[in-house]
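Ticket #4471: structure export looks truncated?
Reporter: QA, pipeline team
Priority: medium

Steps to reproduce: submit the single chain below to the structure queue and open the exported record.
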Amino acid sequence: MQTPTMIDVEVVVDNFIAGTFLPCKRTLDSFDPATGKIWAKIPDSSKLEVDAAVAAAKRAFPGWSKLSYQQRAKHLLKVADLLESRLEAFAVAESRDQGKPVWLARTMDIPRAVLNLRHFAHAIPHHLNTSSVQPEAGVVNYTTREPVGVAGLISPWNLPLYLLTFKLAPALICGNTVVAKPSELTSVTAHMFCKVLQDADFPAGVVNMVYGLGNPTGEALVTHPDVPIISFTGSTATGGRIAQATAPMFKKLSLEMGGKNAAVVFSDCDLEACVATLKRASFINQGQVCLCTSRIFVQRPVYEDFLHLFVDAAKEIKVGPPTGEDVFMGPLNSKAHLEKVQRYVHYGVEDGGTIVCGEGVDLLHLTEDYKGGYYMRPTVITGLSDDSRCMQDEIFGPVTCVVPFDTEEEVVERANNSSYGLCASVWTSNVGVAHRVAQSLKVGTVWTNCWLVRDLDMPFGGVKNSGLGRESTQDSLEFYTEAKTICTKIV
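Actual output as written to the record:
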């Protein structure tokens, strides 16, 4: 197969350093998940490009950090307004780059990116200082919060602009400058966002984007001596490597990593509402959300009814090209990831499970144009033990395991039998049961009778192998700043 020329490529992404787009001599191919064809060229940045971006951010830091919160907020809100005005173009590009349906990018990803910018611009200035008076000592104590410096931000491929802005907005409003590295698999909307920054007259050098692989690009960023703070979202394996590499440098770290999220379905729940929500929780964005449900524990009296309803719901899901308004699942993000997810379905069979719908059972019907894409059917596996690979490992795709349980005590122990601890959901009409189970589950977030209802003022993050630190209005303020106590003698 011939290598495409630059004329064949629809999008050429350039690094964005000191307010200027700079081409890179070395490039990576970016594939359209819907067709399997190359559609963009991405910089394959080296340490030289990272060094240039960090130097630009370091130069911009004194001026940006000295602006008032109100002045920085004004810049962010202008960017938010421009981004919102280009919502449809961003939604189409996000879908093309990542594989998610256009309607999902239009209703979730891009609006959330706009919300991230506006929320942190408005909210963080209201969470700033504390003070106290000690009359017996004749002093007044007060605290200030100062930006840390150049922040290194690494965002993933599943929610590209959504999670990039979730890091950018608090880092910037707190007065830091930024060098960001989006995933090399989904860099196009970050590139488009830099054009928004230019058009909004955002101060040059405050936001810099470098694109490339985890090694060398990401490694050069996280180990750079002039980058004292790193926020990363991605796999647990990569997060572990970042923690190890940065430990001798005592950098501030925020690591949002993997999950193996459980749903606990009690026999007294509203079964139809539960199934409808868990269908979305298992298969939205092709199951490629860190908060997606991949283990469903169902109390035995309703197990067969739940399974019947859930399998029927999964079989009704339309899989196809992401431009279709009636398509619920587009392609997975990459060929390598599709092969990994399919491999886990085979593991499920090897470990004694039964594929009741999906991969290997239900056929996909695609037109010729899309047969090279990375599609698979939503898959439900039953009959697995809790220590099987599909019940223990993060698959990060449209694969969900359904198993029965008998008692509350039993299911808590089994749900906690995981090296991960990001989130869970509990389904019951009994408030007492919901409270006890939520308190007992070793995760960062528990939803009761709902899923993925987010409030940016509430802490987000995981325990165990799911992460280090939290993100929210207050948590992000504390992460992206350093507190200073000033004690003044009253003369």
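Status: closed, not a bug. The export was complete when the record was re-opened. Leaving a note from the reviewer for reference: Residues 261-456 form a domain with the Aldehyde Dehydrogenase; Chain A, domain 2 fold (CATH 3.40.309.10).
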